[in-house]
Amino acid sequence: MHINYTDVVSRRSQITSRVPMRYTPGRSWESVRERRVLSLGCGPVEGSQFKELLASAAGVEGVDTDPKTGALYRTLAEVPSGEFTSLVAEHVLEHMTHDQMLDAFEQAARILSPGSTVIITLPNINNFGIWFGDYDHKSFCPPVDTASMLELHGFHVTDMFGWSKQSRFQRHMSMSEQECAIARFVEENWGLTLPQYITIYAVRS
To answer: For the chain, where are the alpha helices, taking DSSP H only?
Structure first.
């Protein structure tokens, strides 16, 4: 599916006015309870991330190109429609090219029925220490543009927030007035922000 950049910019404005960005201590898997989850780029099915999802959801299957992970599917194209009610993409989209990401959204729209949810987590591109810590990052798309392209594929973004690991979040919450002033100055002048990660919640329209 071809996406016109003008449409992305227009949708970006709608999302930022509708879904204010906030900074939280983390994200949970509460929203996948009672749902059948498809984990994109799941990693090892014996790993902690996969087991966290299993502990919360009604069921979980994985998609991963690496056969050693034990994932049921190698690509989204193999996944039948209608069997899952939630898609989780945890630190995977940033490793895709632009075209691969658009194809993933198109496949997600095919696989998921209306009312199904999508949860995407990305390293915060505006936190250089997090984003540029992995040489394999291929997509430099700002999170709000990722959200825009998701909406252009038939999803509705309901929440988007930044978060950090607990120790770092607590450190940020206890910054002095002077440190807060410096952080505001850096964000206003260079666009750099504190959260380590960005999570996007969306619902299939």
So the answer is: 5-18, 48-56, 98-111, 128-131, 143-151, 166-173, 177-190
Question: CA 74, 77, 83 angle in degrees (round to 5)?
Answer: 95
Residue indicated by tokens 């309901």: 158
pTM greater than the 0.85 cutoff: yes
Both tokens of 164, joined, read: 């950090």
One-character DSSP codes across 142-171: -HHHHHHHHHTTTEEEEEEEEE--HHHHHH
Q: How far is CA 13 from the centre of its chain?
A: 19
Percent of the chain with pLDDT over 90: 83
Interval 187-205 mean pLDDT: 95
Is 177 buried (19+), middle (13-18) or exposed (0-12) by CB count in 10 A?
exposed
Determine the Cα–Cα distance for residues 153 and 1; give it in Å rounded to an integer.
Answer: 9
Confidence of residue 3 (pLDDT cuts 50, 70, 90): confident
Rounded Cα distance between 152 and 9, Å, is: 11
**Average pLDDT, stretch 104-127?**
95
**CA angle 24–15–81, rounded 5-degree value:** 90
